[in-house]
Specification:
The structure is a homodimer. The first copy, chain A, is α/β, with parallel strands linked by helices. In chain A, 34% of the residues lie in helices and 25% in strands. Chain A has helices at 11-21, 38-46, 61-67, 76-82, 94-103, 127-130, 145-160, 198-205, 238-247, 263-272, 310-320, 326-336, and strands spanning 2-7, 26-33, 54-56, 72-75, 85-88, 109-112, 123-125, 139-142, 163-173, 189-190, 211-218, 224-232, 251-254, 283-286, 291-293, 296-303. In chain A, strands 4-3-2-1-5-6-8-7 form an eight-stranded parallel sheet, sandwiched between helices. In chain A, strands 9, 10, 11, 12, 13, 14, 15 and 16 form an eight-stranded mixed sheet that branches. In chain A, strand 5 (85-88), helix 5 (94-103) and strand 6 form a beta-alpha-beta unit. Chain A is globular, with a radius of gyration of 20 Å. In chain A, 52% of the residues are buried. Chain A binds chain B through residues 14, 37-39, 41-43, 46-48, 177-180, 186, 221-222, 258-260, 262, 264-265, 267-269, 271-274, 276-278, and chain B through 14, 37-39, 41-43, 46-48, 177-180, 186, 221-222, 258-260, 262, 264-265, 267-269, 271-274, 276-278.
């Protein structure tokens, strides 16, 4: 049984903690945070993590948390003595300090999230594409939501058909549903650096991939959407491509022609399935958009920014602690989260 | 055991059908619809209503549904023979035809939704305010989401303190999350009739209530918000008012000061509680906004347009079939939906 601590109970951290809690080969020994937020209170007092020990992740945070009525088990240092691995879901910048001041001195393995600097860990991780590279590692970064979706889809096409080069045009959500003071509210903001960081991020997972990415930010909170163009290395039809996607774990196909022709309508499907928080951990390709013209392949997919990296975090844990191989770990993770 | 049919599996109908299915004194004998929509497929084939019999609610719909691969049990007429009551959640206009051509000839009781014409039923219903008026009735209209929230809150204040008059200013959502082609997208639309229909709708439930409503529509999908101003008939403090709200079923208090200061943040709480579809069947008053100045009381509340009427539909069933009194019915309903 692997003892796991989750540091940072925000959008990503709360989901990873709940997911860890569902695994039969992991024990969630606690969560750590600094701020007595309403979100933390909901999750720990009324939500799925009732009775999970809470640790103060900064020395002066304990008082703040206790003053707000939280039951604090102790400082994070105590939890680190028990932990085999920490999943760090703190904001970019804090993660780096945590590595230096908490994880390295306590000799504890740690996973960082997509916002972290590339230098934070020797391995940038995506379960589909490079599970084995994380085997036994002390520090691993699970790549961001956008990068995760690109790794899953491009790795599949590359492995089964062959990718000469790819261009992905990202239409990013402005903020998450709870983040009401983020913009844009009525404008589209281009990322002025071309390529955007997502292309290089994909290359950290798949160094051989010739990929360029462009990105804009739009006024929506439900998900990102990517328009992808691939130059194929080999002949293939749209049906072949659909078969590849159909075949792979954590890629799902939805069809506009079946009534799911928008992010809102796909989210409605997740709600109708009673998925917790309407999470969709799969990269969702609109099957209707998969088109081949000569050696050019096109498609559009949707990325649920809040949850898509959750399964990859679980698999990274199993790789780093050498608990399972890729296929077995992914199967366990998928079964526990009701993913196909 | 009351045999219930739900006609119309849209935003409201699918929720009512799932809620009926959870009651131990009701049997969901089937749902009826006309369109082989993706939403219907999700709910009946993968969602909470798997294996619920589907009936075609129009003569030519059966072929359409079967052509699309749905397993159709028969025409709605067959279901009506078994049904004690139909909950009609079809669009306004269709409901009227259904009453005339289906429910009256088959001598079946029916509940209609807030969009229906006032003339469709002799009783406009809100469980908190006038449960007993529906006792034994053949046709009842459960009032709309906005009206439901006003009835719950105003009835409570009126009963415990006394209301001389009320003005409610409604900020309505443009559409539901799945309704991507509704507006407005970047504009605020005033309802040019003053009062808006909501005031008169409240008066159908509480004829003695002196209420005026104004309304605008804004670009959001999560919920409506009302700013309410009441002239009190008796002295009261803000604390008294909070106690009244605290005390009543189906009214919940949230506080901006505790991190829930927006519709997005309250929705996030519902997600963190793993509420199915993040539904919030309670009218939610922001406790911080409850303010008394002299005889003037002010507050702001939030209305989850997709789900708030669901519990009232269940209670209307019990009233019309004379199964329980108000308090027992509301308790049963609330327990089954995990409402306080």
């Amino acid at each position: 049984m692997a003892n796991i601590l989750v540091n940072g109970v925000g959008t990503i951290g709360k989901r990873i903690a709940e997911a860890v809690d569902k695994q039969n080969d992991m024990e969630l020994i606690g969560v750590a945070d600094v701020e007595p937020s309403g979100e933390l209170r909901t999750v720990l007092e009324e939500g799925a993590l009732r009775d999970t020990p809470l640790f103060a992740s900064m020395p002066d945070a304990r008082g703040d948390l206790e003053d707000a009525g939280f039951d604090v088990e102790g400082r994070i240092g105590h939890a680190l003595e028990e932990a085999d691995l920490v999943v760090d879901a703190t904001p970019a910048g804090i993660d780096e300090k945590n590595k230096e001041k908490l994880y390295e001195p306590n000799d504890v393995k740690a996973i960082f999230q997509g916002g972290a600097a590339a230098s934070i860990a020797p391995v940038a991780f995506n379960a589909n594409a490079n599970f084995e590279e994380a085997r036994g590692e002390d520090f691993v970064k699970v790549v961001s939501c956008n990068t995760t979706s690109l790794c899953r889809t491009l790795y599949a096409i590359d492995e089964d058909i062959g990718v000469d080069s790819a261009v992905a045009n990202l239409v990013r959500r402005g903020g998450d549903p709870k983040q009401d003071s983020r913009g844009p509210i009525n404008s589209i903001i281009p990322v002025s650096d071309v390529p955007s960081h997502h292309g290089p991020d994909v290359q950290e997972v798949m160094p051989w991939m010739d990929i360029t990415t462009l990105a804009v930010k739009v006024p929506t909170t439900l998900s990102h959407v990517h328009m992808v163009n691939v130059e194929l290395a080999d002949d293939a039809t749209a049906e072949d491509v659909l078969d590849v996607f159909e075949d792979r774990p954590r890629i799902r196909l939805e069809y506009a022609s079946e009534g799911f022709g928008s992010t809102g309508k796909v989210v409605e499907k997740m709600r109708d399935l009673h998925r917790p928080r309407y999470d969709m951990q799969e990269a969702t390709v609109w099957g209707d958009t998969v088109t081949v013209e000569g050696d050019q392949l096109y498609w559009i997919h949707m990325v649920h920014q809040e949850s898509i990296v959750v399964p990859d975090n679980l698999d990274a844990i199993r790789a780093m602690l050498e608990m399972e191989n890729r296929d077995k770990s992914m199967r366990k993770t998928n079964a526990s989260l009701d993913l196909r």
